Amino acid sequence: MRIAALLLLLPLLGTSGTATAADTLSVVLDWLPNPDEAPLFVAKHEGFFNRHGLDVNLIAPSDAATPPMLAAVGRVDVAISYQPQLYMLVAQGVPLMRFGSLVSQPLDSIIVLSKGPVRRLADMRGRKLGYAVGGVEEVLARTMLASAGLKPQDVQLVNVNFQIVSALLGHSVDGTISAYRNKEIHEVAVHGAQAVSFFPEDYGVPAYDELIYVTRKSAIHDGRLPRFVAAVRDATAWLREHPEQAWKDFAADYPAEDTPLVHTEWLATLPYFAKNPGELDIPRYQRFGTFMQARGLIGTAPAVEAIAVNTETAQ
């Protein structure tokens, strides 16, 4: 990611609906509305934000690379980002801090076809593994493969440019690291095949938060943020109790997403949402920062307190 170039582009993106009223909060999603952000849609549709004195504007970005940068320069109050991305941006001098977690464990996984030649991860020897984005995904893949006893030269990594399912079904690769455990494995099933997942946390990768809430560092003590976290916590609990009603509301608000596949993904994502989104597990973050440093993704891992806060205790 070229940070300087993104900063130059930000004035061209137009206004983002940044708050003018004290209790209004602008939140840019990580991409188009999808089940990964279900608690936010529930909090808005069911009135949890309002109950906590907030008028939240959910914004879909025009470019998936820009959400954290928009937050860093104050164009929006909050952005959905990723824990690995946070470390890399902070290492480049971007003033961001995490104040909550949306999805509190990895979603990435390596998937292979059930009827293919790979039964164990060690069976990837001499085969091709697809990925969509270089950097973190390549490191996750190499770490997982090494945990299974494979050396870098044993497996060929192939950039499949987000054609994850088609590359797997077309047998141009034997597996892919870029598959979300709540998404692509179900998309494979739609095409009449079955897939098996291998999870990073089972193969040498420290656990991390897939999706997090970030804001610019100077705004980390904004009094609206703990209320936002409290509303999301209440919405997550309601979502777990009423998954089908929540789905119907989401499908009505976003009819383009009203498909059997997205419904399946909606239900499959429920176990992964943070129950207490403002909590911060400092040792867990330290382990992942050390991992990123050791793998050359960042220079020196920052102190956790320099990039994240526990918003649960700020209520």
Task: Give an account of the 3D structure.
- The chain is of the alpha/beta class and 315 residues long.
- The chain folds into two domains: 209 residues, D-Maltodextrin-Binding Protein, domain 2 (3-Layer(aba) Sandwich), CATH 3.40.190.10; 95 residues, Periplasmic binding protein-like II (D-Maltodextrin-Binding Protein, domain 2, 3-Layer(aba) Sandwich).
- Helices cover 35% and strands 17% of the residues.
- It contains twelve helices and ten strands.
- It has a five-stranded mixed sheet, with helices on both faces. The chain has a five-stranded mixed sheet with strand order 7-6-8-5-9, with helices on both faces.
- The longest helix has 18 residues.
Helix-strand layout with pairing:
Layout: H1 3-9, E1 24-28, H2 38-45, H3 48-51, E2 55-59, H4 67-72, E3 78-81, H5 83-91, E4 96-103, E5 108-113, E6 128-131, H6 136-147, E7 156-159, H7 164-169, E8 175-180, H8 184-190, E9 195-198, E10 211-216, H9 224-241, H10 243-253, H11 260-269, H12 282-294
Going by helix content, strand content and strand pairing, the class is alpha/beta
CATH C-level class of the largest domain is Alpha Beta
Indicate the proportion of strand residues: 15-25%
Low-confidence stretches: 1-22
Shape: globular
Strand order of the largest sheet: 2-1-3-10-4
End-to-end separation: 35 Å
Number of strands: 10
Order of helices and strands: HEHHEHEHEEEHEHEHEEHHHH
Overall tally of domains: 2
| CA radius of gyration | 20 Å
CATH superfamily of the largest domain: Periplasmic binding protein-like II
CATH topology type of the largest domain? D-Maltodextrin-Binding Protein, domain 2
Output the number of helix runs.
12
- The CATH architecture of the largest domain can be given as 3-Layer(aba) Sandwich
Major beta sheet summary: 5 strands, mixed
